[in-house]
């Protein structure tokens, strides 16, 4: 007769529950996987299937009751690690969407905004267009598979443990978050430069011919120049977008490593040395 103890049952539950929590955290925050159009049932089924594949390769989990206080802390910690890894790639898409916002506002297309189900807000048409282009590039270069591979590797670089994670992990997200503005400006720079030259030319034209209705011809000219520049620059966005994907995936790999770091001995508080008599 097969008999199981409560310790063995808890070990089996924890061996699947804690990896599943990190995987679901990444799925919920990562682009494409966590999109609002993907049903929650599909996300849950995908997370369970990935957990069944990854759980046998995970190092030994701590012998802690999953329903205990320590087990709940591990659950929250795993959720935070997975969400941080997915959010690192989400920041890459935020940089591309920010480039679309800059281009739209510069070419006078900022009024054409639509509801974005991803951010639950309104975004410009150019921003949504670049976001769809980035999504297709994300699938074309198999970045979603590389992201899942990085998630699987995170269980080696940051094993499931009851030890609190290091505060160096949020710093990695902060460093990547600073790239939103610089990367967005770099992607939209061709459109901004072309429209700057166009606006200077329109200003000179207005000074040369004051009777010219600049408001009547300025908007269609800037809009046409912006769309033409976007169509010309679009084939050359492949390399910078792939570089952004690499940065996001590398940041996702660095987050578990940074979370596994401990306080160096030099920075740890030292006990005062008693003065010699």
Automatic annotation (TrEMBL):
Signal peptide, first to last residue: none
GO CC annotation, single: bacterial-type flagellum basal body
InterPro entries to which the protein is assigned, alphabetical: FliR, T3SS_IM_R
Transmembrane portions of the chain: 12-32, 44-61, 67-87, 129-151, 180-202, 214-237
Subcellular location: Cell membrane; Bacterial flagellum basal body
Top-rank taxon, per record: Bacteria
Pfam families reported for this sequence: Bac_export_1 (PF01311)
Keywords noted in UniProt: Bacterial flagellum, Cell membrane, Cell projection, Cilium, Flagellum, Membrane, Transmembrane, Transmembrane helix
Topology class, membrane: Multi-pass membrane protein
GO BP term, pick one: bacterial-type flagellum assembly
PANTHER family in the cross-refs: FLAGELLAR BIOSYNTHETIC PROTEIN FLIR (PTHR30065:SF8)
Function description: Role in flagellar biosynthesis.
Family per record: Belongs to the FliR/MopE/SpaR family.
Protein name in UniProt: Flagellar biosynthetic protein FliR
Organism expressing this protein natively: Massilia litorea
């Amino acid at each position: 007769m097969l008999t199981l103890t409560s310790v063995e049952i808890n070990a089996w539950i924890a061996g699947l529950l804690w990896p599943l929590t990190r995987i679901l955290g990444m799925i919920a925050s990562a682009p494409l996987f966590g999109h609002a159009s993907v049903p929650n049932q599909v996300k849950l089924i995908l997370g369970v299937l990935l957990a069944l594949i990854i759980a046998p390769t995970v190092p030994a989990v701590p012998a802690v009751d999953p329903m205990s206080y320590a087990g709940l802390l591990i659950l929250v910690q795993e959720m935070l690690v997975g969400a941080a890894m997915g959010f690192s790639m989400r920041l890459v898409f935020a940089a591309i969407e920010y480039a679309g916002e800059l281009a739209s506002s510069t070419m006078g297309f900022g009024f054409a905004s639509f509801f974005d189900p991803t951010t639950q807000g309104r975004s410009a048409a150019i921003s949504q267009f670049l976001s769809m282009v980035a999504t297709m590039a994300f699938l074309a270069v198999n970045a979603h598979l590389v992201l899942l591979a990085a998630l699987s590797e995170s269980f080696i670089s940051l094993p499931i443990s009851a030890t609190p994670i290091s505060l160096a992990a949020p710093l990695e997200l902060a460093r990547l978050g600073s790239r939103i503005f610089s990367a967005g400006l770099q992607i939209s720079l061709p459109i901004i430069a072309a429209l700057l030259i166009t606006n200077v030319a329109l200003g000179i034209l207005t000074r040369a011919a004051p009777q010219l209705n600049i408001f009547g011809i300025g908007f269609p000219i800037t809009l046409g120049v912006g769309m033409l520049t976007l169509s010309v620059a679009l084939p050359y966005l492949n390399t910078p977008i792939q570089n952004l994907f690499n940065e996001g995936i590398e940041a996702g790999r660095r987050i578990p490593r940074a979370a596994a770091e401990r306080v160096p001995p030099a920075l740890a508080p030292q006990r005062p040395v008693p003065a010699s008599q």
